[in-house]
Amino acid sequence: MKLYSTLTRGKRDFEPAGDAVTMYVCGITASNSSHVGHALSSIVFDVLHRYLEFRGYEVRRVQNFTDVDDKIITRANDEGLSSEEVAEKYIEEFFKDMDDLNVQRATVHPRATQEIPGILKMIQGLIEKGNAYPATDESGSVYFRVDSDDAYGKLSGRTVEELLEGVRNEIEPGKEAPPDFALWKASRPGEPAWDSPWGQGRPGWHIECSAMALEYLGETIDIHGGGLDLVFPHHENELTQSESYTGNKPFARFWMHNGLLRLDGAKMSKSLGNLVTVRDALEGNSADAIRMYILTSHYRSPLLYDEDNIHTQERAARRLRQAATAESDGSSGESVNPAPFRERYVEAMEDDLNTPQALAAIFDLAHEINRGRDAGHDLTDAQAEMRSLAGVLGLTLAEPEASEDGLSDADVEARLASRTEARTNRDFAAADAIRDELIEAGIAIEDGAGGTIWSRV
Ligand SMILES: [Zn+2]
Ligand SMILES: [Zn+2]
């Protein structure tokens, strides 16, 4: 299997270094509801995890929660809650959202606040090695000395000049040099704080991931994942912290970054700030449709949030579902052979997780199943294979729950069949009555050359 690594800027063969694949994926900061961008990243690495298991690997995936941070503190003050309460609320919500999107839990979901001893040990070690220093103004913060790592910038490809450009106006009195970043932040009164050799404070964002990766996966991990927006500074800093501390290179053998979700300014009606929440997206759309919408684009490409596209995927999901449940009398004595489709699917997934091509192979198999049904072929193997391949993409092919008006997909199909029959019999009053009933129930109908297409609105 070939995977692209941001560090080497190319695809190469992937094999785990040890018995199990070790994967670290940066998780959310629990300060807000998860948005579709989080869903995108979670779904991409969920599919990678599932595919590696499909190939027979054991996978150990760690995804953290940043549960102490400036944004959480601000939100806690706004809502009159404690930081812990805010973090707990959004972690719970995250799990619910991911369950509803059929994203499997990671092997471990560690939280920064529960990893303080490991974090302190790492900061202490970095100071001893000359890679970090307590703030020069004795504030009680600790900074990483970027100058101590000649290779700093290798992941993001930034030069020291570019780094200085980004922090030119930043005046932080305790730093030796502007690009240095905080490993430990001295706390102000009333903020969550832990004891440390440098006084009361809390961990910086970057150090928590280095400490958790080391704690749960060891000095070298096979795959480090996250969104493209994390390459700099988060992953660049994680990399230098980990390699400086352990002396073991590389920290991560493959750095995988998913492209980012973009919003079309015109379609932000249900947005939270400028973000569409997972809750919003799941309202009226099935998890299968959302996953298919995300997976019809390659994971490294940017993705435009598009409700219409998700609705289109809803119809596509229904086509797969219908093929998966199609019944044949088997009268021909032949059967539909899924092997060529599986081969195409695997070939696509082996090429840096080419899910658009993998999905195309599943659709072609669905088409073949429908033809086989018409020809009276046995569909058993083909349908089992289709469910298995779709399952690796996290698609359940289950019928979505009935709408609020109680019309299941089958109900809608049955009414549409009656309507077609009424029209054939030129009983237009009956046909219109059925159409009105469906519209009333939130079902949009479009009559075209290829028959009637419907969707939930
Ligand atoms: Zn991280
Ligand atoms: Zn909608």
Structure, described:
The protein has 457 residues and is an alpha/beta fold. It folds into 3 domains: 2-262, Rossmann fold (3-Layer(aba) Sandwich); 284-392, Anticodon-binding domain of a subclass of class I aminoacyl-tRNA synthetases (Four Helix Bundle (Hemerythrin (Met), subunit A), Up-down Bundle); 409-456, no CATH class. Helix content is 44%, strand content 15%. The protein has 15 helices and 14 strands. The protein has a 4-stranded parallel sheet with strand order 4-3-9-10, with helices on both faces. A 4-stranded antiparallel sheet has the order 5-6-7-8. Strand 13 (443-448) and strand 14 (451-456) form a beta hairpin. The relative contact order is 0.11. Residues 266-272 have low confidence and may be disordered. One zinc ion (ZN) binds next to loops.
